[in-house]
Amino acid sequence: AQKVTQAQTEISVVEKEDVTLDCVYETRDTTYYLFWYKQPPSGELVFLIRRNSFDEQNEISGRYSWNFQKSTSSFNFTITASQVVDSAVYFCALSESNTDKLIFGTGTRLQVFP
Amino acid sequence: EPEVTQTPSHQVTQMGQEVILRCVPISNHLYFYWYRQILGQKVEFLVSFYNNEISEKSEIFDDQFSVERPDGSNFTLKIRSTKLEDSAMYFCASSELYPPGGGQPQHFGDGTRLSIL
Asked: Apex CA B111: angle with CA B85 and CA B19, to 5°?
């Protein structure tokens, strides 16, 4: 069965701290895709990144970085030097090769205080 | 940057009434989706649509729900007889066609908050 677990319900940090959001997934598929989405207080869902199961290279985009480890079925997201504008709910999601639907985790609410 | 647009942003409807939520997907995208998010909960898949027919649907998407692409730009979700538990944020999304295997990023609209009284 497919499942995405985001064990951290809420994280609070002070500006400029680094923060890592955890994501653990379950799938029996050998080909699958992992995503991160950001939901700011205004409510929209903003696509951040996609990773396929054959690409375990870590990715960095500015202050954001992602660590994909198949051995632990994890796809963690790190924000370096957090800013108040990073405050949002962050969702990890999974899609398998035979479907286009996204299976979302329950989200992690990140609050960055000045 | 092209975006998915949804109207209205907020819809208030009496229980038992029909409601239509509208979406304009990104123009060169060919796959369309509806998801919902009950307040404070995770985002749940409802239905995907490709080539003028439903590609996949979840158990939530029962006979009360239907989708349609009435013209070349709009994509609608209709709930025939709304219930209190239909109150949620409804998101439309679209993605480009991709070689078999899926995994296309889905781009979401800002959502329609549906409140059933």
From this structure: 50
The sign of the CA dihedral B63, B68, B74, B80 is: negative
Provide, as residue numbers in chain B, all residues whose Cβ is less than 8 Å from the Cβ of A102. 35, 43, 45, 106
Nearest neighbour of B106 by CB, restricted to A32, A102, A105: A102
A1: closest CA of chain B, how far (Å): 15
Sheet containing strand B65-68, strands side by side? B5-7, B19-24, B75-79, B65-68
Least confident of A37-51, A99-113, B98-112: B98-112
Do residues B58 and B46 make contact, with C-beta atoms less than 8 angstroms apart?
yes
| DSSP letter, residue B84 | G
Work out the average pLDDT over A2-16.
Answer: 96
**Residues of chain B falling short of pLDDT 50:** 99
With CA atoms as reference, report the closest residue to B93 among B84, B106, B111.
Answer: B106
Residue B101 confidence (pLDDT): 54
> What confidence score (pLDDT) does residue B102 get?
64
